[in-house]
């Protein structure tokens, strides 16, 4: 399946589930002085979550162009050095504005990954916010995931916010076990380890609060849903490669750059990092 096909399958899946397909907003957010670049699919819906803006739909899905090169979500220093970080990437997301909540989003995500993309259920691991028994129980009792494959993690991993202020809430992440050979060699056995073995695929955010400049959390008018799944990451998994840079979305740019430079990719690790950085930055600039 190509990256283009995965993107389309995602949008088609959610359209069939009564979501309105909304275009990616500009990388430079309109009317939001808190952000230099769009850093998540939910940015264009910030005021809808806050109840300030009304839309004529309560479910949406997007493939959002995103840059994470500064601010709260900054991946710049990792680009080229890891298999999975970019400045620019495309984020697949589905959103509920006071419509479905935890049960709905968990069921949709599971159906898309296991039935539409056909991922192996046994390789999928879940993390939930440590205080969120409701999400834990949905995964365990309704989806049927063994509790040994569900981790309860803290705020750093499982509480998502767009920035220092704005909509936020506990989240649940779906990870895939890429196998011990991809791991860090330490005794990593669940998503708490930060190495590439347990790769985070999809973040399901249960939007419940608005954080003010003092850090106080105020309940949102209606509990809502915001999700984010990196297209390049899911493409790597579906295409059975261990680096996003080896997917059809990026590898051709690397090959073209190497050809212009008169070198070969995967001959020299230092040059490979440069080729990956150039491919990433070329995509971001374009
Ligand atoms: N808004 C969810 C995410 O960026 O992971």
From TrEMBL:
<dbReference type="InterPro" id="IPR045864">
    <property type="entry name" value="aa-tRNA-synth_II/BPL/LPL"/>
</dbReference>
<dbReference type="InterPro" id="IPR050058">
    <property type="entry name" value="Ala-tRNA_ligase"/>
</dbReference>
<keyword id="KW-0820">tRNA-binding</keyword>
<feature type="domain" description="Alanyl-transfer RNA synthetases family profile">
    <location>
        <begin position="1"/>
        <end position="286"/>
    </location>
</feature>
<dbReference type="InterPro" id="IPR002318">
    <property type="entry name" value="Ala-tRNA-lgiase_IIc"/>
</dbReference>
<comment type="similarity">
    <text>Belongs to the class-II aminoacyl-tRNA synthetase family.</text>
</comment>
<keyword id="KW-0067">ATP-binding</keyword>
<dbReference type="InterPro" id="IPR018164">
    <property type="entry name" value="Ala-tRNA-synth_IIc_N"/>
</dbReference>
<dbReference type="InterPro" id="IPR018162">
    <property type="entry name" value="Ala-tRNA-ligase_IIc_anticod-bd"/>
</dbReference>
<keyword id="KW-0547">Nucleotide-binding</keyword>
<dbReference type="GO" id="GO:0000049">
    <property type="term" value="F:tRNA binding"/>
</dbReference>
<keyword id="KW-0030">Aminoacyl-tRNA synthetase</keyword>
<dbReference type="GO" id="GO:0005524">
    <property type="term" value="F:ATP binding"/>
</dbReference>
<protein>
    <recommendedName>
        <fullName>Alanine--tRNA ligase</fullName>
        <ecNumber>6.1.1.7</ecNumber>
    </recommendedName>
</protein>
<dbReference type="GO" id="GO:0004813">
    <property type="term" value="F:alanine-tRNA ligase activity"/>
</dbReference>
<dbReference type="GO" id="GO:0005829">
    <property type="term" value="C:cytosol"/>
</dbReference>
<keyword id="KW-0648">Protein biosynthesis</keyword>
<keyword id="KW-0436">Ligase</keyword>
<dbReference type="GO" id="GO:0006419">
    <property type="term" value="P:alanyl-tRNA aminoacylation"/>
</dbReference>
<dbReference type="InterPro" id="IPR023033">
    <property type="entry name" value="Ala_tRNA_ligase_euk/bac"/>
</dbReference>
<dbReference type="GO" id="GO:0002161">
    <property type="term" value="F:aminoacyl-tRNA deacylase activity"/>
</dbReference>
<dbReference type="Pfam" id="PF01411">
    <property type="entry name" value="tRNA-synt_2c"/>
</dbReference>
<keyword id="KW-0694">RNA-binding</keyword>
<dbReference type="InterPro" id="IPR018165">
    <property type="entry name" value="Ala-tRNA-synth_IIc_core"/>
</dbReference>
